[in-house]
Design brief:
There is one protein chain. This protein is of the alpha/beta class. It has helices at 2-25, 56-62, 64-72, 74-97, 118-134, 154-167, 179-193, 223-236, 250-266, 284-290, 304-317, 332-337, 358-371, 380-397, 403-414, 425-436; strands spanning 102-108, 143-149, 172-174, 196-199, 216-218, 241-247, 269-276, 297-301, 323-325, 348-352, 419-421, 441-443, 462-468, 471-479. It contains 16 helices and 14 strands. The strands form three sheets. A seven-stranded mixed beta sheet has the order 7-6-8-9-10-13-14, sandwiched between helices. Helix 12 (332-337) links the parallel strand 9 (323-325) and strand 10.
Length: 481
């Protein structure tokens, strides 16, 4: 080590001597600086291994206490295990509530002589479904309404009913408006397929005696009642003679028959009975026959579409200016269309309906809130009731697809005994809760009770209405024959 250090010390001087000798040999007398690399020794850091960190092992050993704490929580796990029984009950209830939708068809009239009625009656059925669904549906299954147009034509009505059943798989149908369409659809499609049809507007007495195997129902009072009240009204107003214009179908014939029977029994004389077809460009020929002999009153047993034509022709042609109206012509649009408010001021008419009551107000308030205007046409409440009854019967039967079971439950929810429930969202919710609790209910409709008899009919009163002050109003008189 000493010798190496000596060499390192002498090295700079030896290098200097060599340079100076080279310079002298080259004849260069000027000395030059020559860079010299100097090696400086440095200390190298050494790694020291510390062996005193063995205490970490003690920390790991102490974590065994945490494992003991978890083991002490086993009783909590046992409580959760006991709660599994509650979970099982909930699971079973959910399975019961998972019913498919309740598909209900609506045979309506968006074209033809009753087109004025179509939208408001469809709205009424849709409102019923909204209230049912807001109440939770039928054990979880929603209520779906599918409307189809009949055009007030039996052939078209049969096709529409077939589509509702074969294509839409409707378990029940609300409708139709026209009795002739209802009867045709029932006989050709509904009864053979074992489905329910419940009309909120078909009033022909012929429906009562239909061979229907208990598949045909209605929430509208039969014209067997309206005809009696119409005759009493004519006689009370002093009309000793009358002529009748009536549509040539089950509705027109049935109501004309009942009116004539009751009217003549009171002492009145029907001078002329003249049928007319659904759609005609003019009714002058029929008017001439119906008013022959100048009867005291012309009784109009028709639909709004026909009345719009022949009432105008009657006024303009001088055939008659005194009329009695019925439910089929109770609508403001056609009177407005012929500018007939002044000419028809004071004219009276009849329609199925009952006095103001809580159930009626509940429907009217709900309809106004939903659509922004109050109910405006006959049979709107009856259509609402028909749809609600189907839903309540489905809930009672515990099915949305078994038409026979739903049919068999209709009278259970419409008739006594049971807690009285009514229209509106709250009323339907209460009804659904009672059914879910296994309790009996008795649904009261918008115009009165909807107790269904053995023929599928309901019993109720007839309202007297009037054209007054540019609108249609109730006289406040309700007659139960």
């Amino acid at each position: 080590m000493i010798q190496l250090k000596s060499v390192r010390v002498l090295a700079p001087f030896l290098a200097l001597l060599i340079v100076m000798s080279l310079a002298a040999a080259c004849g260069d007398s000027q000395p030059q600086e020559v860079p010299v690399t100097v090696i400086v020794p440095q200390e190298v850091p050494q790694t020291v291994v510390v062996t005193e960190e063995v205490e970490v092992t003690k920390v790991v050993t102490e974590e065994v206490e945490v494992t003991k704490v978890v083991t002490e929580r086993v009783p909590v796990t046992q409580i959760v295990t006991e709660e599994v029984e509650v979970t099982k009950v909930v699971t079973e209830e959910v399975a019961m509530e998972q019913l498919p939708p309740l598909v209900v068809g609506n045979l309506n009239s968006f074209t033809g002589s009753l087109a004025e009625f179509g939208p408001p009656l469809r709205n009424s059925v849709a409102l019923a479904a909204d209230h049912v669904n807001a109440a939770g549906g039928i054990q979880g299954g929603s209520m779906v309404i599918i409307s189809r147009d009949t055009g007030v034509n039996p052939v078209q009505g049969v096709d529409a009913a077939r589509a509702l059943i074969d294509v839409e798989n409707a378990v029940a149908i609300v409708g139709a408006l026209s009795s002739g369409v209802t009867i045709a659809a029932a006989e050709a499609v509904v009864i053979p397929n074992g489905r329910i049809i419940i009309s909120g507007a078909s009033t022909a007495p012929a429906i009562t005696t239909l061979d229907d195997n208990d598949w045909v129902f209605r929430t509208a009072v039969s014209d067997a009642a309206q005809g009696v009240v119409l005759a009493e009204l004519a006689w009370r107003e002093g009309y000793e003679t009358s002529g009748i214009m009536y549509i040539n179908n089950a509705y027109g014939e049935g109501l004309a028959d009942q009116f004539e029977k009751s009217y003549t029994a009171l002492g009145g004389e029907v001078m002329n009975r003249v049928p007319h077809e659904d759609t005609q460009p003019t009714y002058n020929s029929e008017l001439e026959k119906a008013t022959d002999g100048d009867p005291d009153v012309l009784v109009t047993i028709s639909y709004t579409g026909q009345a719009q034509v022949y009432i105008r022709e009657s006024l303009e042609g001088g055939y008659a200016d005194t009329f009695l109206f019925v439910d089929g012509v109770k609508g403001p649009e056609w009177i407005e269309a012929i500018n007939g408010w002044d000419d028809l001021e004071g004219t009276l008419g009849t329609v199925q309906g009952g006095p103001d009551r809580a159930e009626k107000s509940a429907f009217e308030d709900a309809y106004t809130a939903a659509y922004g205007f109050p109910p405006s046409h006959p049979f709107m409440g009856e259509h609402y009731d028909a749809a609600v009854l189907v839903a309540l019967a489905a809930a009672k039967a515990g099915t949305t697809t078994d038409a026979a079971a739903i049919r068999d439950a209709l009278r259970d929810v419409a008739n006594s005994p049971g807690e009285v429930v009514g229209p509106g969202r709250d009323g339907i919710a209460r009804a659904m809760q009672l059914i879910a609790d296994g309790q009996d209910i008795n649904y009261e409709g918008t115009a009165g009770n909807v107790d269904i008899d053995e023929n599928g009919d309901v019993f109720g009163s007839i309202e007297i209405w009037q054209v007054s002050g540019g609108e249609i109003v109730s006289t406040g008189e309700y007659i139960t024959p």
